[in-house]
Amino acid sequence: MNNKLLISFLLLSTSLFFSCHGPVKEEKNNASANPITLHVGDEKYVTIDTKQSVATWKGANSFGSHTGYVYISKGELKLENNQLVSGTAEIDMNTLEDEKYGRNNGLIKHLKSPDFFDVKNFPTATIELTKVAIVNGENIKITGNLTIKGITRPVTFPAKITFKDGDVNINSKLIIDRTDWGIRYKSKKFLENLADQTISDSIEFDIKVVAKK
């Protein structure tokens, strides 16, 4: 091979080498400069303020009705993009009290007995929020699992939610059939000839929850 042919061959080889490897190096640089980013929603948890949160209960019998309170011992709510998505709360059943006479009276002692909530064996009740649907404005519909006396049943109930300065306020009304949780004392569903001694199967709860960041 003469010198001119050898020089031409070397120039051609060098040109092919850089043309094949140049773009690969540029592609790597571009990949480093523009990494793939996975977007994660604005997720945070807020703690339920047990001093400001309370459930007001109402039960009735043939002679009238009783109203009282029971308190949340702990809980938290999960927010995503400033919307409630889930949460949990534990209710201290030992805090049951009557609106007029407090905690140390015959009614409350009976409610804590095995006839009703059997608080000695089941000192807490829990609710787990599993789904929250926006109805309109501040109105939402909550679905969750309510556990009383070790029995878990699904519940759905309306609520109103507001956000202010990072705090969350929820006001809701939950009505349950106590017999779904094994509380059958003087229920006309299971006992006959009770006459005027029946106790309503429905228990109403007006629940106020305040949670803070």
N- to C-terminal distance? 82 Å
Q: Helix content range of the residues, please?
A: 10-25%
Would you tell me which CATH topology of the largest domain applies?
A: Lipocalin
User: Judging by the overall fold, what is the CATH architecture of the largest domain?
Assistant: Beta Barrel
- Compute the number of helices: 2
Q: Brief overview, please?
A:
The chain has 213 residues and is of the alpha+beta class. The chain is built from two helices and nine strands; from the N terminus they run H-E-E-E-E-H-E-E-E-E-E.
Describe the structure.
InterPro entries: Lipid/polyisoprenoid-bd_YceI (IPR007372), TTHA0802/YceI-like_sf (IPR036761). Pfam families: YceI (PF04264). Residues 45-212 form the Lipid/polyisoprenoid-binding YceI-like domain. Keywords: Signal. This protein has helices at residues 3-33, 106-112; strands at 43-48, 54-61, 64-80, 83-98, 124-136, 139-148, 151-164, 167-177, 202-212. Strand 7 and strand 8 form a beta hairpin. The termini are far apart. The protein has 2 domains: 1-37; 43-212, Lipocalin. Mean pLDDT is 84; it is low at 2-40. Strands 1, 2, 3, 4, 5, 6, 7, 8 and 9 form a 9-stranded antiparallel sheet that branches. The protein is 18% helix and 50% strand. It is of the alpha+beta class and 213 residues long.
Which features characterize this protein?
213 residues, alpha+beta, Lipocalin, 2 domains, 9-stranded antiparallel β-sheet, 2 helices, 9 strands, 18% helix, elongated, disordered N terminus
